[in-house]
Amino acid sequence: MELKDLLGDAWKDGMSMEDVTNALKDIQLPVDQSAEIERLKESLSKSNSEAADWKKQFRATQDEATRKAAEAEESSKKLLDEVEQLRKEKTISGYKASYLGLGYGEKDASEIAQALSDGQMDKVFEIQKRHQNAMSETIRKELLKDTHRPGGGDGTDGGKDEKIELAKALGKARAESNSADVLKHYTR
To answer: Does the residue 101 lie in any domain?
Structure first.
């Protein structure tokens, strides 16, 4: 140990021997306290050992707690996924029932419900257009099925009408007379 370290704040450069002696009078020299130091070392060692034991126990507990927390989180996530899947299936089922009620076929109703649930609007519109075309064709066929066939050119359903017969005969006679007049005109 140096004199400068021993005097601490009392040290000044250029001190005379008398100044150093006076400064040393105010300073208490350390008493041999090796027994106390040894006791403190043992106490510190014991405390460190106990702290290490507690740390091991805490880590073991923490690992168990962490594992349980991870298992609980995984279980919770699984349940949430199942609930979400059930909600989606319920939504699809509701959409399918609605489309079946609108006259869609089983296949088209299933496809459009799934597409609607997944947000695939292009597919929804494609299926709706296909259904609309099929419905238009069905309606057209039904209307044609219920429409009566037209009769002959006589305005009846195949029966004879005297007025129509007379008109046909007059038309034929006129055509023949006109053709005879035309022939005479060219043959002269």
So the answer is: yes
Cβ-count burial 82-95 (b if 16+ within 10 Å, e if not): eeeeeeeeeebeeb
Total domain count for the chain? 1
Amino acid at 185: H
The answer to whether the beta carbons of residues 155 and 161 sit under 8 Å apart is yes
pTM, 2 dp: 0.43
Which H/E stretch holds residue 61?
helix 34-101
Residues in the chain: 188
Burial of residue 170 (CB within 10 Å: 0-12, 13-18, 19+) is exposed
Amino acid at 110: S
> Does the residue 99 lie in any domain?
yes
Contact of 121 with 129, CB cutoff 8 Å: no
Q: Can you list the pairs that 135-140 forms with residues at least 24 positions away whose Cβ atoms lie under 8 Å? A: 135/103
**Which range marks the domain in which residue 84 is found?**
51-144
**Of 108, 141, 137, 139, whose CA–CA distance to 125 is shortest?**
108
Distance CA 150, CA 2 (A): 135
For 38-47, the CB contacts below 8 A with 24+ separation are none
Q: Does 72 reside within a domain? A: yes
| pLDDT tens per residue across span 113-159 | 999 999 999 999 999 999 999 889 988 988 888 777 665 554 555 55
Q: From CA 118, how far away is CA 175, in angstroms rounded?
A: 74
